[in-house]
Specification:
Layout (H helix, E strand, L loop, with lengths): L4 E5 L17 H14 L3 H7 L2 H5 L1 H21 L7 E4 L3 H8 L5 H18 L5 E7 L3 H15 L3 E8 L2 E7 H11 L6 E4 L12 H11 L10 E2 L11 H11 L6 H10 L4 E5 L4 H9 L4 E5 L2 H12 L1
Amino acid sequence: MTQKLAFVFPGQGSQSIGMLNGFAHNLIVQQLISQASQVLGQDLGQLIQDGPLEALALTENTQPVMLLAGVAIYRAWVEAGGQIPEFTAGHSLGEYTSLVCANSLDFAQAVPLVRFRAQAMQEAVPVGSGGMAAIIGLDDEMIKKLCLEVSQETGFVVEPVNFNAPNQVVVAGHIQAIDRIIEIAKPAGAKLATKLNVSAPFHSSLLLPAATKLAKHLADVQLHQPSVQVINNVDVVIESDPLKIKDALIRQSYSPVRWVETIEKMANLGVTHIVECGPGRVLAGLVKRIAPQIKMLGISDPQTIQAVLLELKN
């Protein structure tokens, strides 16, 4: 069977202290760290290497460092002789990484763009008034039904926002509605319903004000036609028109991440191997549940890059 390769890029939550330590002597990676640090006027290299974890977990820091890590590891892969994938996708913030790696979005523009996105998202809902929860063990329709019931009962917003894997959905909204849905999810049959350690209700309609700011900011950012086919989160389609890509990024901020459909689309397009490019293995677990027939691999340091190069050769 012909090998067909796709790359996926993680979003917030996969960051860790020291996540680029393996590339201390890689010139390309070090140049990207310097470039990103210069653009933001902040030493991202030190933040990644030393933390503290609380600073790394702040949304306005997490988004630039995760973009930096994903792009750096991808460029190290290409430098090592790794093949260019036919398709890419990124989970939430990972879509920006995906577009940089597909030469649609310039890295030097992407770094301040994702920081602006993070700040706009955080400003849209005051800290402490919005949140997210993961619900495992209920199907999508049941979760939509519970969200509607809770919203009607409490007068607060709660919506499904990440369709991550079969029977694994994240909801977001006002904290009162999040607390209530956690209460009723288990009696409704959920195996787990737990609040996530995040500072905003990402991808919910409460982030519409952030989308307005993002649209204005993106107007000054130049995008190009991608050199690799990027499947977006919001429509699960491959766009080549830069204006349509921008529009999808704007809507992505307040719309659900349709990850299950994204991976199913890759499977339908004949993808045989998916590489998770970046720190952590969050997406690997999701992909295995969505499309177990696809061979899942991961690169996060020079050793894993060499291992995957070898695996794809055989």
